[in-house]
Every structure is written in structure tokens, then in C-alpha cells.
Design a protein that fits this description.
The protein is mainly beta. The chain is built from three helices and 13 strands.
Length: 267
């Protein structure tokens, strides 16, 4: 483990200070969609991020509340003026409370109902997994799954290493108006796949931060970012399964810097 930590620190010194940006394209339908942001997009306001996409009408951020009441039949609908929700409304700054889009957070996106599909790229600074689940209440979260052969893992396989993680209902948004069938309850966890770009409602009986069979803990929540001050970053890997896992570390080039941000000058 000591050797692994030294290797990770060396890789970070060599590459991470420049590998700052990643762009993910989200496929949205007309009506309500649930998305999950795996990185920090606070370099721009929602007005700036979605200026070229006028069909995006509203964005609601879920703020986990430990005192939230457990949902019984369907998850909560977004309601202004509550601690659980912050909202951005296009052209209505006086009623908007969401000014920046933070990472490792679930969002609801309301799109013009006449839209069939809308592909929206969002550029952000990648972050290590860091979500904390609310016990006995509603969670709107996503998971850092990876496609294998073009498909994501199923819910059953993804949570097989932590059986008590999701013991209640799971819901996903499918577009259209909010109704008894949107968000839609997922019954078949053996066939339903965990799309990393989607945010799902679920209930849990434990306080957890599970994000996969391999647990990754970084001493700096912002990731392997040394800047000009830090000299050591610690990364710990925990295998949550009973089977040996092979971990591969691969340097990745940064995407292009957003407008107004410092340009990337190295690999």
C-alpha cells in the first residue's frame, strides 16, 4: 500500500495539475429529467452554461436533509422555499436560488415539453466520489459506473458487494410531466442498468457513501490537485468484495478549458 500511495502521488505530480477539465454530454427529454454531476461546474453560472439551450427552463438541485421525511409512494416533487431544493429559472433571477452547479450532486432539469431529445454538454472539473446518503429518507444521487462493452452494470451487480445499500424503492425520471409514473419506479434490479449520468431516487436504511466495489478515499476532497502549496496527497483504495481486484492507473489528458479559464499547456 505504501508503494501504491507513492506511485499515485508521483502520477499526480506529473499530470493532475493540468488535467482539470472534462465534458460530459447529457441526453435530455422533453419534461423532467434527473442528472448527476460528477464534477464541479462552478466556473460559470447556469445562465452561462445553458445560454445556447433555451429549451432548458428550470434546474433544481437536491440538497440532502438528514431530517427529510421518508417518501412512501413517490419521491418528493420540487418545491421552492424548502431546504431540500435550490432552483434556477431561465429569465427569472428574482425567483432563482441556484447560482452555481456544484459537483457530486443530483439535479432535476425541466425541458420544453415539445422537445424529443436534447444533448447538452456540461464541462466541469472532475471530483473523487464523495456522496453521503441520508438514512430513512429520500436520496437523489448518481453513481460513478463505467461502461463495459457499451453497457453499464445492472443495479443488482453494482450493489452486490454492499447488499444492504438500497433496500427500499428506486425511481428514475423518464421525461414528460411529473406524475404517478414519472419518476418511474424500478422493479427489476437484475436488468435495469445504472447510467452514471442519471440521478436516481432511492431509500436506504444506513448512512453510507458507497460508490462501487472499489472504495476510493482522497485526503483532499477536490482530488489530486497539488497547486503550488501541497506536497503530498494520500489516496486509499479499499476492496469491498471478497474477490481480488486489479486496479489500473491511466493518465488522461484534460479537455479544453472553458471560456475565461486558464488554458491547458501540458499533457
Amino acid at each position: 500500500m505504501k508503494t501504491l500511495l507513492i506511485l499515485l502521488a508521483a502520477l499526480a505530480l506529473a499530470a493532475r495539475s493540468d488535467a482539470q477539465w472534462q465534458t460530459t454530454s447529457y441526453t435530455l427529454k422533453g419534461g423532467w429529467n434527473g442528472i448527476y454531476l460528477h464534477g464541479d461546474a462552478t466556473h460559470a453560472t447556469p445562465d452561462q452554461l445553458f445560454a445556447a439551450y433555451p429549451d432548458i427552463l428550470e434546474i433544481w438541485r437536491w440538497n440532502p436533509n438528514p431530517d427529510e421525511v421518508q417518501f412512501i409512494s413517490t419521491p418528493l416533487e420540487p418545491v421552492s422555499g424548502t431546504a431540500e431544493w435550490s432552483v434556477w429559472r431561465r429569465g427569472s433571477p428574482e425567483t432563482s436560488t441556484l447560482t452555481l452547479m456544484t459537483g457530486q450532486t443530483g439535479y432535476l432539469v425541466n425541458v420544453t415539453s415539445t422537445v424529443t431529445t436534447l444533448n447538452v454538454p456540461i464541462t466541469f472539473t472532475p471530483l473523487p466520489p464523495g456522496a453521503v446518503w441520508v438514512r430513512n429518507g429520500a436520496n437523489l444521487l448518481g453513481f460513478p459506473t463505467k461502461q463495459n462493452g457499451g453497457t453499464y452494470p445492472t443495479f443488482a451487480s453494482y450493489f452486490s458487494s454492499f447488499a444492504p445499500a438500497v433496500t427500499g424503492k428506486i425511481h428514475k425520471y423518464i421525461g414528460g410531466e411529473l406524475s404517478a409514473t414519472n419518476p418511474l419506479q424500478i422493479f427489476s434490479t437484475g436488468t435495469e442498468r445504472v447510467d452514471r449520468n442519471q440521478a436516481y431516487w432511492f431509500e436506504t436504511q444506513t448512512v453510507e457513501n458507497f460508490h462501487g466495489p472499489l472504495d476510493i478515499t482522497v485526503s483532499n476532497p477536490a482530488g489530486l490537485d497539488f497547486g503550488r502549496l501541497e506536497s503530498l496527497v494520500t489516496v486509499r483504495l479499499r476492496n469491498r468484495t471478497t474477490v481480488a481486484q486489479t486496479v489500473t492507473l491511466t493518465p488522461a489528458s484534460s479537455g479544453s478549458a472553458p471560456a475565461g479559464q486558464e488554458a491547458i499547456t501540458g499533457p
